[in-house]
Structure to design on (976 residues):
């Protein structure tokens, strides 16, 4: 049933490829690797670490809010915690987590040997890690960012926030933006060029559609926030007046720049996760996704519409009613592609044969949470109603249903799903089911009551609230729910730890899934595929049984007549739409340059933070030297002639 | 229907809205009520959608199938796609309806009435509200703080701005939020249909004491309101030479606070003229009683950490002098 393939340990071809592709041993190899699988797993682990950090911050806040007028935290400590919680989850967890999936999975799903720019890939990870550390550097000295993840001016201007708190925030986001943009460019080019022959755009897994769409959006959206943060930093430290009222600046300019970035960003955080569900849920329904084309189109449509709704974060800022009405209507319209997705997933379950595995539970749970988060979004889309809802706990409920429901649940389900591929071992099913129910019940107990506290008028971002508001009981329930949810996360980590050591061996394709990544071994060899697969349908491993076409993909052993590309580190490049092979791509080997470039950038940004000319100079100079080395062309003439076995 | 829904809501909300002073779904005022109707409508649609989709999902999962069949086979999705089309079509109609309802509501409440008989300026600042009553006759204008007093059944135009960071003006039972942005003046309006007290709250994060930046709206009959206004115009009696409380106030408090009719003219803190007639102190943090006021003066930074008012370490006799002086400014 599963397609067997060349085993690296026996086949001479595999041994040769291993020699070409394997990362060097030791600390050098650890710092210099450009293997997308290693980078992907690093992304996943680092992002999960930040999820735990942000979660612990949330738990401390939940204790403070468990009852009215508690005094566990000072207002200042609370403000730092909620700001870091938001910043961590939005920037250091949600997108990097999805980048981890995509980094690991893309070349395997697309039938390539690596991403288009492996060194940029490594740079993107190291920069993310360095920016994450940078954003936390002032936390231990009690000077962490304290103006919220949205950092509204003038509250974050030097006059009202004189510490280094918001300098860390502003520079940290510019720093992190480099990682995001570099990663996004890499995804876009990878999709356009680095696929197996035959992997045309109508055969792409939906997570690829999701990440590609999100990456295009990031290229357009991230510069807005990087610019805004740079302007904030200049206002704070160099006396410019972009946002400074006294100098004729406009506080609302910040909000526009921030939300022109912020709202597309929110979709970038969910579209790839919805892709995880669209790809993995059908496996447990034993059938292809219903409405593949509809889901792919609505993914793109959501993102395009997502650029036209940012003002719904600003309904109460006193903009003209006419423009508010436009943005309100646009915010209703954006629910339509989401409805398409929901109906497609339900139809897939309905017409399929559900297998109640842990990933299935997470994906089915996701559908319900998505609907609840969706309808609360529908309520906040209404400009008149939003004049009441905005900045209340209702919005806190909404955004957590959206971000945990559509990001965390698919992510945890996705880890259960691909863990066997990544490690070669299965995760424990019984513990997995316990994890799901604990997380699902804890999540709803924590966040559903927030709808009600919001409707009862509890404002957001308050460190305490008076007893007379009558929301003490519901807040206690939220706090208990948050701890139950945290217990679920703990069970998940326990399962990971146990399964890593003693999970049963998975085999190549334990779920009998249809996509290319399951045609190689678990874990995959460093070169992914001994011979480049040739794809003939959307479900290469199911095509015999689905009988949609007579054409057959050529995979694994059967691909022994295909392209081996063993004259150096090579993969195949294809035309953007139809995936016709047209070039052999020379891939770079291990390189310290990405790590060094990120390290130089770190020196530069710490220099900017400390406004130390010495550090800025050293960091800047290092960057120039490293970029020079990076961009120095190399000769591939001796290996230009490549044998294409047909 | 509204009443039925409201009843349903009361069962849903523990304790009910009656004890939730910021709850807006049971608002009856012209603006608050219009939004509440829309709110109940959209909540009803939302709950309905969740129930329908939830049921579809559950049925999809548990409906009867040939046991233990996991084989992959050919599929035909034509019927499923037709159902998806129907579902999306119905959703679109509902969304369109909700959008139209929203726009109609916005149209009815979005713009302040042209000839509102009363205009009040409210200036937000960390972490209190300066309130100025406008009048055609400048002699009848005056300032107060942390409280709005308005007549019942009269549309009141509110002009909002901020002296420092962005705040947001929100009296949930009377209407929606409107931000107070430095360098801009935003206009909103309120109209109360019932006499009573309503709580207002800052709803844009504004720093350390955002949580405790509230105010009180007292709605009076037109006659009572006129009396109240006239009384507010009366200067405070007494002079620092004869009144020990005022003397202490001049030494300890007047650099920041104003009391009309006395030499005290500071503008950094709230105007304290007619302080004794106010409902609450410290931006609606505590009821206005002599004990609370004395406690506030003694422990300002403990009660409201970070607030701009310093702890003055006044003698007990000074505290009691100032307290009784302020409480007598009716």
């Amino acid at each position: 049933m599963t397609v067997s393939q060349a085993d690296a340990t026996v086949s001479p071809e595999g041994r040769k490829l291993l020699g070409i592709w394997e990362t060097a041993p030791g600390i050098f190899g650890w710092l210099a690797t450009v293997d997308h699988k290693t980078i992907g797993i690093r992304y996943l682990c680092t992002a999960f670490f930040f999820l735990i950090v942000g979660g612990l911050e949330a738990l401390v806040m939940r204790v403070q809010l468990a009852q009215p007028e508690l005094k566990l935290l000072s207002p200042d400590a609370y403000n730092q915690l909620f700001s870091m919680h938001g910043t961590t989850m939005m920037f250091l967890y949600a997108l990097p987590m999805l980048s981890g999936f995509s980094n690991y999975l893309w070349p395997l799903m697309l039938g390539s040997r690596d991403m288009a720019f492996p060194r940029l890939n490594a740079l993107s990870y190291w920069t993310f890690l360095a920016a994450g550390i940078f954003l936390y550097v002032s936390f231990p000295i009690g000077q962490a960012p304290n103006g919220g993840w949205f950092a509204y001016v003038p509250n974050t201007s030097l006059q009202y926030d004189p510490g280094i708190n918001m300098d860390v925030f502003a520079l940290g986001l510019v720093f992190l933006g480099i990682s995001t943009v570099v990663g996004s460019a890499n995804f876009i080019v990878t999709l356009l060029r680095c696929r197996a022959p035959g992997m045309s755009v109508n055969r792409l897994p939906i997570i690829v559609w999701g990440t590609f769409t999100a990456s295009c959006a990031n290229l357009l959206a991230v510069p807005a926030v990087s610019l805004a943060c740079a302007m904030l930093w200049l206002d704070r430290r160099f006396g410019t007046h972009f946002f400074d009222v006294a100098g004729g600046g406009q506080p609302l300019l910040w909000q526009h720049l921030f939300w022109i970035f912020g709202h597309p960003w929110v979709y970038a955080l969910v579209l790839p996760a919805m892709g995880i569900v669209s790809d993995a849920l059908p496996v447990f329904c034993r059938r292809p996704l219903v409405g593949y084309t509809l889901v792919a189109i609505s993914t793109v449509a959501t993102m395009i519409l997502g650029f036209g709704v940012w003002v719904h974060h600003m309904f109460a800022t006193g903009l003209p009613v006419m423009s508010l009405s436009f943005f309100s209507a646009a915010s209703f319209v954006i629910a339509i592609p989401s409805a398409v997705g929901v109906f497609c997933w339900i139809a897939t379950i309905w017409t399929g044969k559900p297998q109640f595995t842990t990933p299935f539970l997470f994906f089915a749970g996701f559908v319900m949470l998505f609907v609840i988060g969706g309808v609360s979004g529908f309520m906040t889309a209404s400009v008149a109603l939003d004049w009441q809802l905005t900045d209340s706990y209702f919005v806190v409920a909404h955004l957590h249903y959206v971000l945990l429901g559509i990001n965390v649940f698919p992510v945890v389900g996705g880890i259960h799903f691909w863990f066997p591929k990544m490690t070669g071992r299965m995760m424990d099913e019984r513990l997995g089911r316990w994890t799901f129910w604990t997380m699902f019940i804890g999540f709803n107990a924590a966040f559903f009551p927030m709808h009600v506290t919001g409707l009862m008028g509890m404002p957001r971002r308050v460190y305490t609230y008076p007893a007379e508001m009558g929301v003490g009981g519901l807040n206690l329930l939220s706090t208990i729910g948050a701890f139950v949810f945290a217990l679920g996360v703990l069970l998940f980590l326990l399962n990971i730890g146990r399964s890593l050591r003693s999970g049963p061996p998975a085999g190549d394709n334990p779920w009998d899934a249809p996509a290319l990544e399951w045609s190689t071994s678990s874990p995959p060899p460093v070169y992914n595929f001994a011979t480049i697969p040739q794809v003939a349908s959307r479900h290469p491993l199911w095509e015999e049984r689905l009988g949609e076409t007579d054409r057959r993909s050529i995979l694994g052993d059967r691909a022994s007549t295909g392209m081996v590309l063993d004259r150096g580190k090579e993969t195949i490049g294809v035309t953007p739409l139809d995936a016709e092979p047209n070039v052999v791509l020379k891939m770079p080997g291990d390189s310290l340059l990405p790590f060094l470039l990120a390290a130089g950038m770190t020196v530069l940004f710490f220099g900017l933070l400390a406004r130390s000319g010495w550090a800025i100079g050293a960091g800047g100079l290092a960057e120039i030297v490293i970029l020079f080395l990076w961009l120095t062309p190399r000769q591939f003439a001796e290996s230009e002639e490549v044998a294409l076995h047909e | 229907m509204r009443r039925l829904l409201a009843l349903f809501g009361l069962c849903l909300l523990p304790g009910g809205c009656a004890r939730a002073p910021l709850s807006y779904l049971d608002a009856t005022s012209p603006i608050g009520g219009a939004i509440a109707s829309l709110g109940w409508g959209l909540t009803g649609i939302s709950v309905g959608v969740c129930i329908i989709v939830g049921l579809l999902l559950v049925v999809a999962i548990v409906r009867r199938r040939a046991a233990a069949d996991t084989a992959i086979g050919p599929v035909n999705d034509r019927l499923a796609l037709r159902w998806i089309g129907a579902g999306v079509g119905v959703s679109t109609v509902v969304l369109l309806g909700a959008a139209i309802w929203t726009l109609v509501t916005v149209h009815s409440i979005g713009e302040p009435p042209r000839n509102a008989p009363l205009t009040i300026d409210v200036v937000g600042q960390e972490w209190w509200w300066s309130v100025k009553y406008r009048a055609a006759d400048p002699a009848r204008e005056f300032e107060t703080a942390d409280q709005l007093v308005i007549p019942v059944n009269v549309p009141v135009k509110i002009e909002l701005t901020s002296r420092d960071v962005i705040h947001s003006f929100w009296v949930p039972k009377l209407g929606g939020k409107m931000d107070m942005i430095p360098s801009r003046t935003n206009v909103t309006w309120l109209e109360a249909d019932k006499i009573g007290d309503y709580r207002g709250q800052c709803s844009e994060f504004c720093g350390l004491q955002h949580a405790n930046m509230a105010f009180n709206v007292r709605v009076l009959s037109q006659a009572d309101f006129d009396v109240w206004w006239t009384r507010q115009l009366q200067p405070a009696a007494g002079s620092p030479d004869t009144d020990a409380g005022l003397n202490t106030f001049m030494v300890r408090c007047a650099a920041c606070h104003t009391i009309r009719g006395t030499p005290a003219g500071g503008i950094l803190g709230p105007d304290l003229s007619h302080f004794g007639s106010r409902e609450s102190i410290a931006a609606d943090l505590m009821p206005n009683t002599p004990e609370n006021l004395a406690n506030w003066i003694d422990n300002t930074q403990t009660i409201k950490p970070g607030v701009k008012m310093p702890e003055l370490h006044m003698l007990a006799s000074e505290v009691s002098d100032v307290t009784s002086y302020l409480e007598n400014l009716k």
Notes: The domain at 12-306+408-425+591-631 of chain A is CATH 1.20.210.10 (Cytochrome C Oxidase; Chain A). The longest strand of chain A covers residues 581-586. Chain A is about 60% helix and 0% strand.
